[in-house]
Each structure stands twice: as C-alpha cells, then as structure tokens.
Write a structure and sequence with these properties.
5-stranded antiparallel beta sheet; Beta-Lactamase; alpha+beta; 13 helices; about 20% strand; about 525 residues; disordered N terminus; Heat Shock Protein 90
Length: about 525
C-alpha cells in the first residue's frame, strides 16, 4: 500500500527512440527523393509495410521542396498499400533535418474523415443538381461521376426503367461506356444462364452486394457478351442499389469497387443516399413530362378554339361569298362588274385577316422565348402581329432583359411568354378594348429579385365575382386562367386579376428570381 500523500508515478520513456517507437502518429525519415530511410511502427502500419524493411521504398510523400515544405503547413496525400491496394489518405507535415538532405514526415490517417466530408458534399451537390438541372441524362451522368469520384470507385452506372417497364437504359455512367446495346447484351447473358444481381435488386427492392464479383463475371462463359464492356477498368466488389420513387422501382445504381475496397455499412449508406437523389431526379423528370403532356393538350385545345373562332369562320365566309357568284351564274344572272369587284374586295380582306391570324398563331406556337433576347423578340413580335391583326393599339414597355434575365431557365422564360400571350389573347377576345399595354421588368422585393409583368386593357372589365383575390385564388374562371396560374406556380409565382377604378382589367404576374439576379426599382410589383 502506497504511503498516504504520495502519488505513484509510472515509469517514463527514457530516450527519444522510445518516444518515436510508441508515438501514435506515423513518423518517418525520408530522403531528398521521397524514399523511406526509416519509419516508426505506426508509420509502417499506416502504409501497410514491414517495419524491418522500409528503407529505400518510395514513401507516400512527394520529393520535398526546401522552398515551400514548411511554409505550406499540413498537406494531404493519397496512398495505396502495395500488397492490398487499399486506398488511404494521410495528413502530413514535413520538417527538414538540419545539416542533411533528409526530412522528417509526421503523418496521420484521415481517410474516414475526408471520405465523410466528400460524401456529404456529394449528396448535397446531387440534391442541388436534381433541383436545378432540367436534363435527366445530365443529372444522372453528373451523379454517377460524383459517386465514382467521391469513393474512388472503378465504375458507376445509373440505369432507369422505360415507361413500359421492360427495358433498362444507361442514363449515367463513369468508368464504363454508355452504349445503347448494353441492355441487349445483358439480356443475352441472362439467356445464357448468368445471374443478374441488378435485376434481383430491382425486383426485391433491396440492395445486393457481392464480393469478388469481377472474377466471377470474367470467368463465367455466360457473361461473355459483356466481357468487353465489364473487363476494364479492373474492379472487385459489386453493389446494386434500386432507385425507388413513391415506393416503386424506377431504376438501379450499380457501383464497381476497385480491388482492395470492400462494401461496409458506411459505403452502403452513401450509395443509398445517392440512389435516393437519383430516384428523385427520375421522378421529377416523369412529373415534368406529364406536366408537358397536359400543357401540350391544352395548347392544342386552345389552337382549335382560336381556329374555330377566327380562321374557320373567316374561311367559311370566303367560301359563301365565292359560292354566291356561282349561284348567280347558274341562274343565268351573271354578276355585274361592280358586284364582282365588291366580292373580290371582301375576299381579299378576309384572306388578309386569315393570314394575319395564322401568322399570330405561328408566333404563339413557336415564340423562341427560351433566352432573354428570345423573350424580348417574341414579345415584340406578339405585340406587332396582334396590333396589325386586330387594329387595337397594343404597346410593350420593357427594358432590354438580356442582362437582368440572363442565365434563367429556358422553361421559365417560355412560361412567362405563354402567360402574357394568354392574357393578351383574353383582352383582345373578351374585353372589347381599344388599347392594351404589356409591361415586363425586374424589381426588388426584400432580399430577392422578382420578375413582374402585367397586361392592362381599357375594356369593359370583369364582374366582381370574376376578379381573383390578392392571393391569386380561383376567383377567375376558365381554362386559360387556370393554365396561366399553373405556369406561374411552377416557379413559385402568382397571377392576379384586378379591376382598376378607372376601368378595364389588369392581369399581373409575379415570380421570384435567383438572388444573384440584379434588380431594379420602378417595375410593376
């Protein structure tokens, strides 16, 4: 028993060699060529080397540069163990040995921490791509490359199920090609008896993992149709994770791990997270395509109504006028020159009106409003053709949007055009207006810019029950108004219908824009 008041002290290291030998971090001496001279047990263990024979082996560290080695502080380097091929990341600092050309490297393993950081960044980037990119192929291609780069994989494939559910298409790939014949070759392998883990994962809706899969595939004659595709680059472990959207399988994510890598819990969690982002992208693309189908049907219905209300009626009138001349001739009553001249003038006027209507419809169908300059040109063309066709005084107030609206999504600009075109069409057709004014500008509201646009006419106005409330609710009826509100809502905006005290009607649209967009005061808000 120790005497009271005294503290027992453990024996301490008695030499610098003991400190180096028992240090938790790797400590090594390297020469000017970056080769090991000697290393403590921790350094040899971290590098996967035999402590007794490290001398002369190239180290993970580049040949030191006296001018900047100590000035740059801690750096990172990637190392693969010579025997297992296992990939590690080291954080290290170098210090020169005075009077020699040797250096002391102090390093530690940061593989797990750095990998976790890269995975979190990859998940965040994938989520951003899903939200911002409009191309499914572009999104899934970027996601596949991000997965491969983050975990240092040999290859990644993202495949989606087609609309009929009987084919898989490679939509994103890294390390392997994305040939259109991949699925056909895959089915050829299946017909020869190959076990397709990706199809099993798709059917069971559960991820599947296989060790030493490369050897199994390359040595199995059943896989011969895909040997040229799957043979390079080299890989070993394989994981297949289904993409699930609303509980239904919509695709598969295949990960091919480099030799020396294994699939553990953390690797699987990362693949599941990225598969979730890929599934969201596929689901988003499907929803967008359905929205476009609805929009196309509505556009066709609108075109049919416009043709019936204008062109069809005018052509019918032209037909009846021409037929009246034939009736007179058939009765032995040849028309007088004055009558022929009158009919000719009427036919000419009707033909000009029909041509103007058709040109206006062509402008509305293909406005080329997919860029800022395209939107400006399309709106000016719309105003000019509408004014020429109807005789109504139609004007446009808009500063050149090329700078303010540059970089915006093409579909957003298209929807802005469609809303303004529909509002103008309604004013022409229903308001009995003599003057219509279109305005488009970018304004500041709070911390974000907003695109504000309005169509104002001096027509008969609308009944109080038809005017929407401040929230842009369902007060105004009709297919056109519903479509306008849906287009604005796609981008977080609203469409409001107001009846100014001076008379007429104002249709106003407001959309939030990215924070990087410059905003100007003085626009309709």
């Amino acid at each position: 028993m120790e005497p009271r008041g005294r503290v027992a002290v453990a024996p301490s290291a008695t030499s610098d060699d003991d400190v180096v030998r028992h240090a938790p971090d790797g400590l090594a001496v390297i020469d000017s060529g970056g080769r090991f001279v000697e290393a403590n047990p921790a350094a040899a263990h971290l590098c996967g080397l035999d402590p007794a024979s490290v001398a002369g082996i190239p180290s993970p560290f580049p040949a030191p540069d006296l001018s900047d080695a100590q000035r740059t502080g801690e750096q990172t380097v990637t190392w693969r163990e010579p025997v297992t091929g296992r990939r590690r990341e080291f954080a290290y600092v170098l210090a020169s040995v005075p009077g020699t050309t040797r250096w002391i490297a102090s390093f530690r393993d940061v593989t797990v921490g750095r990998l976790r950081e890269r995975r979190l960044a990859a998940i965040a980037k994938a989520a951003s791509d899903v939200a911002s990119k409009r191309s499914l192929i572009g999104t899934l291609e970027a996601l596949a490359q991000e997965v491969a780069r983050t975990d240092g994989l040999a290859g990644v494939q993202v495949l989606t199920v087609n609309s009929t559910g009987d084919r898989l298409h490679v939509m994103g790939s890294s390390g392997f090609g994305r040939g259109s014949e991949f699925f056909d070759k895959l089915m050829a392998c299946r017909a020869r008896g190959a076990r397709l883990l990706m199809l099993e994962a798709l059917e069971t809706r559960e991820p599947l993992i296989a060790a030493n899969r490369y050897d199994a595939v390359m040595q199995d004659p059943a896989w011969e149709p895909l040997h040229d595709v799957m043979g390079s680059p080299l890989w070993d472990w394989f994981a297949s994770v289904p993409l699930l959207a609303r509980g239904e399988p919509v695709g598969i994510l295949n990960a091919f791990f480099t030799p020396g890598q294994e699939v553990g819990e953390s690797e699987l969690e990362f693949l599941l997270a990225m598969a979730e982002q890929a599934a969201m992208a596929v689901d988003h693309a499907a929803l967008l395509e359905r929205e476009r189908d609805v929009a196309r049907r509505e556009e066709r219905q609108k075109l049919a109504r416009d043709l019936h209300d204008s062109v069809v009626q005018q052509v019918f009138s032209m037909m009846m006028q021409a037929r009246s001349l034939g009736v007179l001739v058939a009765r032995g009553l040849p028309p007088t020159p004055e009558k022929v001249a009158q009919v000719a003038d009427d036919l000419s006027g009707s033909a000009e009106a029909v041509l103007a209507d058709l040109r206006g419809m062509v402008v509305e169908l293909r406005p080329a409003a997919t860029t800022a300059s395209g939107l400006s040109s399309a709106l000016r063309s719309l105003v000019e053709t509408t004014s020429a066709r109807t005789g109504i005084d139609v004007s446009l107030e808009m500063e050149d949007p090329a700078d303010d609206l540059s970089g915006l999504d093409a579909d957003l600009l298209e929807d802005v055009y469609r809303v303004l075109a529909e509002a103008l069409h309604n004013s022409v057709k229903h308001a009995g207006a003599s003057r219509i004014r279109l305005r488009l500008a970018v304004t500041a509201r709070g911390r974000r810019g907003r695109l504000a646009a309005e169509v104002t006419d001096d027509g008969r106005g609308m009944g109080a029950e038809s005017v929407a409330g401040p929230s842009g609710g369902s007060g105004s009826s009709g297919m056109g108004m519903s479509v306008m509100r849906e287009r604005a809502a796609r981008w977080g905006g609203v469409v409001q219908v107001r009846q100014p005290a001076r008379g007429g009607t104002t249709v106003r649209m407001s959309l939030p824009l990215p924070t990087s967009l410059p905003a100007r005061p003085g626009a309709p808000s």
